[in-house]
Amino acid sequence: MRLIFLTFCLLISTNTISAGRTIDIPAPPASLAQWYPPVAKRLVWLHNMFKLRRELQAVAEYARLKDQPRMNKWARQFDMHYRKIGEMVPEWKSELDMDGAQRLASATESGDFSAARQAVRKLNQSCRGCHRDYRAIVTLLYRTPDFSKQTINAGPDGKTRYKKHMEMLATEINRIKIAMVDERPKAALNAFNMLSTGINQLAESCANCHKQTRIGKNYFDADLQAMLKKLGSAIQSGDQRQSGMALGEVAVSACSHCHGTHRVLYDLKQLTK
Questions:
Q1: May I ask the CATH class of domain 148-271?
Q2: 247-273 pLDDT tens trace
Q3: For the packed helices 98-110 and 44-64, what is the interaxial angle rounded to 10 degrees?
Q4: Domain-by-domain residue ranges, the chain?
Q5: What is the DSSP track for 39-72?
Q6: pTM score, whole prediction
Q7: End-to-end alpha carbon distance in the chain
Q8: pLDDT digits (tens, 9 = 90+) for 38-87
Q9: Equal CATH topology for 43-142 and 148-271
Q10: What is the pLDDT of residues 125-161, one digit of tens each?
């Protein structure tokens, strides 16, 4: 089986010496890609997983309540959706615990509540084993945005690569700090105008996905805009201390918060290509 290699630098606490450690992660079957965007329009695979978890939970709960008709109803639904795994991803058909699924079906049909609960526990263990091997890498490959192909409505031609735009924002943040430390408020203000414009251009791109969240149309809404206004005022007044504090607030809100989710996954995703 093809392996995806991810190398992490582990810091040794006392001497801060980095040591390389390689983690081998099995790649999911290629046929799984058809059940995720952009190939698939609907997340059929993911919703099938949700159904399986819900159905096993229902069987266990009705087994505890000794409600055989409802227990058996949910077990039949589980059996149908469990078999779909092998139909949707043939490479995983042999990995299915069909003996366990049959034990569950027999127990629920006969009303053996103890055997049904035991069968649920065994099947849950089987599910966790597969999730342990594949859930993280599947999320990384198919459920995280690929910023490498995205563009920002900016620049002379109206389209700037996402990475280039991010590098510009980082450059302007440092340019503001450098200029303020060296008492060049005009240069700092020019850099601030570039930063402010660039952040608002980025906001339009974020809104493509974050339509209903507070990131939304205005990119952190009024909070970040207030921080930018505070930063601009501090630069104009020449106040190094206030501008430094305001710049830190902007950097955390406009950069660090989003990087904590998107940047780490983006960098890891690049290692899989």
A1: mainly alpha
A2: 998 888 878 777 777 777 777 776 666
A3: 40
A4: 43-142, 148-271
A5: T-SS-HHHHHHHHHHHHHHHHHHHHHTT-HHHHH
A6: 0.67
A7: 16
A8: 899 898 999 999 999 999 999 999 999 999 999 999 999 999 999 999 99
A9: yes
A10: 999 999 989 988 888 888 877 777 778 877 766 788 8
For residues 70 and 63, what is the distance between their CA atoms, to the nearest angstrom?
A: 9
Which residues, in sequence order, are bridge partners of residue 152? 160
Task: Please check whether residue 28 is in contact with residue 134, taking contact to mean a CB–CB distance below 8 angstroms.
Answer: yes
| Contacts of 85 by beta carbon, 8 Å cutoff, 6+ apart | 48, 92, 93, 96
For residue 136, the one-letter residue type is: A
Within 43-184, where are the H helices?
A: 44-64, 68-88, 98-110, 113-142, 162-181
Q: Are 199 and 254 in contact (CB under 8 A)?
A: yes
Per-residue DSSP letter, 261? I
Q: Which helix (H) or strand (E) holds 9?
A: strand 3-12
Closest CA to 183 of 247, 243, 238: 238
Per-residue tokens: 148: 């490498």
Count CB neighbours of 71 within 10 A.
Answer: 26
Contact 71, 120 (CB under 8 A): no
- Classify domain 43-142 at the CATH class level: mainly alpha
